[in-house]
Amino acid sequence: DQVFHIVPETFQQVQHLQHLCSTLPLDLWKPQLPEDIRVGKDLHIRVPAPVVQEVKDNLDHHTISYKVLIPDVQELVDQSIPNERRSHSQVSEGYSYTQYHPMEEIYQWMTQIQKSNSELVTQHYLGKTIENRTMYYLQISQPSDKAKKIIWMDCGIHAREWISPAFCQWFVKEILQNYKSDPKISRFLQNLDLYVLPVLNIDGYIYSWEKDRLWRKNRSPHMNGTCYGTDLNRNFNSSWGSIGVSYNCSSEIFCGSGPESEPETRAVAQFIERKKGDILCYLTIHSYGQYILTPYGFTSKPPSNSEELIHVAEKAAAALMGKYGTSYKVGSTSSILYSNSGSSRDWAHMIGIPFSYTFELRDNGTHGFVLPVDQIQPTCEETM
Amino acid sequence: AAMELQPSHGLANRVATLAAGYLCYRRGSPGRGLVLRSLRRARRQDIDDVGHKYYLELVLEDVLDKDSTVNCTAEVLYHLGSKNLAPDVQFTLEGELKNTDEADNVFYNRIRSLEKELVAENIPDSHGNVSPEMEPIRRLAWVASGYIIWQNSTENTKFHLAQIKRVKQVKRSDEYLEFDYMILLHEMVSQEIIPWQMTVLWHPQHGVQVTQDSRQPKHTSG
């Protein structure tokens, strides 16, 4: 199929083109209707392959000049299909990593991922949410006789930050698709285990799909069911309730009735506490703002390994920028963002996990939480 | 004496966001949306009995064309004590902004020739989609929200337009276009989503005006 560009020069030409449109299976792209064809106005028309020659001959015969705008429509279509659909994927046939998925589909994806990659991936129970939904994490672990350190990553602690769970899924897919062929990834897995929690705040995430796109907190009821939700990232036992929070349930930064009052918080905290001796790095993924944040939020006093933390983060930001030019700011939450207490990242560092970071993904505020789907791929690629 | 601030600093960025919002309001149109790309430099001066003054060097980008940037210097004065006085903002743009007359006029004529008043909801939708016909409507809201942000910001707030909940065109007998918007603003420090109603007037030669606005009560969901 080809697309022709024609600028009719006379009214007779206009009439002739309109006639062609009614007698041949031509697809008008611009204008939309034959009756809108005008002298001097751009005409874009898709000509199906079987009649290309006939149309060319016809136009030549009527001295109507044309340019071939697109010589092969199919080729253009093929090029626009995202990579992971084209290449073979033993990860998850047909699962689109450039779309946002509801929780049901993410549950199915986790099961499928484990099934298709059982030599590397196991799905584990973490706990239950306040609405009694099951929290699972994926363990990506290459069989080995040596004990390995752990990197933990959680996504979706705040319901409206949809790009975050999308990134966790993308991350898992990338690792599984490339661990055999990419020397960096394969060396990584020889020495480290990856634990990924794709959606921490499951109830909130579902609520943001079904009722309120901009919901942030979990769905725990307060005040006899007249008010809902604790900010899970203010609910951890890191100077809980001291600064940057509200004690009022109606606030978006309500810290809950006490540290770890929420089952989701407890599920994560208990697991990390148990494994803390082996966890090298704690990552928690949020949006938006384009930041790599280091401890702490509740005090401006820097953590003991501040220099190293910042150094690694700056390298990460530079690598990220190298992909699409996206600039990320690096620093402690209290200095470059605002003060807050009870964050998971601060707590992880306080119990001894040396490398603890919050990522705030794209964008800078133009779209904010409602990041368009066409930014999923570049965001995930650069963050990778 | 002005004190140098780190460009990555939270406070400096809140001031920059305010300045960008004001600038966008003054210079924006349905064909031109401007957003803060980065803060190059920030200085602060505390003036006794007056308030806090900030000197900023900003880079703005065109929402339609990420590669099109413009440098800008701005001075922002937050008045001491008074919660009801909007900050004073003055700015200078380096160079020219891209001419958007054609896009503005196409939009203007399109809306003027509609048979029924335009009505729309949820821009963007949950997945971030905005139809091409709604892009100028969204940019207009972005520009007008710059006014709201300017009028309601302090050194401890950082606002962004999160979503347009509803927009309704209001018929007028003169040449202006009028839209009644219900928008959702996201405030970064409190993380609150604040509904705000605003009446927006626009004409290609007369710029954007917010003639009336009111903060709405938060929708408490059960």
TrEMBL record, chain A:
A Pfam family it matches:
Peptidase_M14
In which compartments does the protein localize?
Apical cell membrane
Peptidase M14 domain location, by residue? 99-384
What GO CC terms are in its UniProt record? Answer: apical plasma membrane; extracellular space; side of membrane
- Decide whether keyword Acyltransferase is in the record: no
Cofactors named for this entry = Zn(2+)
Instruction: Identify the InterPro entries for this entry.
Output: CARBOXYPEPT_ZN_1 (IPR057246), M14A-like_propep (IPR036990), M14A_act_pep (IPR003146), Peptidase_M14 (IPR000834)
Q: Name the principal localization, coarsely classed.
A: membrane
Q: Which GO terms describe its molecular function?
A: metallocarboxypeptidase activity; zinc ion binding
Q: Which residues cross the membrane?
A: none
Tell me the keywords, alphabetical order: Carboxypeptidase, Cell membrane, Disulfide bond, Glycoprotein, GPI-anchor, Hydrolase, Lipoprotein, Membrane, Metal-binding, Metalloprotease, Protease, Signal, Zinc
Q: Which residue positions are annotated as catalytic?
A: 360 (proton donor/acceptor)
The record describes its membrane topology as:
Lipid-anchor; GPI-anchor
Q: Give the record's GO biological process terms.
A: proteolysis
Q: What does this protein do?
A: Carboxypeptidase which preferentially cleaves C-terminal acidic residues from peptides and proteins. Can also cleave C-terminal hydrophobic amino acids, with a preference for small residues over large residues.
PANTHER family referenced in this protein's UniProt entry, alphabetically: CARBOXYPEPTIDASE O (PTHR11705:SF19), PROTEASE FAMILY M14 CARBOXYPEPTIDASE A,B (PTHR11705)
* Record-stated family: Belongs to the peptidase M14 family.
Name of protein: Carboxypeptidase O
Native source organism of the sequence: Rostratula benghalensis (greater painted-snipe)
Automatic annotation (TrEMBL), chain B:
Choose any GO biological process term that the UniProt entry carries and state it: inflammatory response
Alphabetized, the UniProt keywords read: Acetylation, Cytoplasm, Heparin-binding, Inflammatory response, Protease inhibitor, Repeat
Residues forming the Cystatin LXN-type domain are: 1-99, 119-222
Q: Which PROSITE patterns match?
A: CYSTATIN_LXN (PS52033)
What SUPFAM superfamilies does the record point to? Cystatin/monellin (SSF54403)
Q: Does the keyword Transcription regulation apply?
A: no
State the Gene Ontology terms under molecular function. Answer: heparin binding; metalloendopeptidase inhibitor activity
Q: Which InterPro entries match?
A: CYSTATIN_LXN, Cystatin_sf, Latexin
Q: Which cellular components does GO assign to this protein?
A: cytoplasm; extracellular space
Q: Indicate where this protein resides in the cell.
A: Cytoplasm
Repeat among keywords: yes
Q: Which family does it belong to?
A: Belongs to the protease inhibitor I47 (latexin) family.
Q: What does this protein do?
A: Hardly reversible, non-competitive, and potent inhibitor of CPA1, CPA2 and CPA4. May play a role in inflammation.
* Name of the molecule in the record: Latexin
Gene for this chain: Lxn
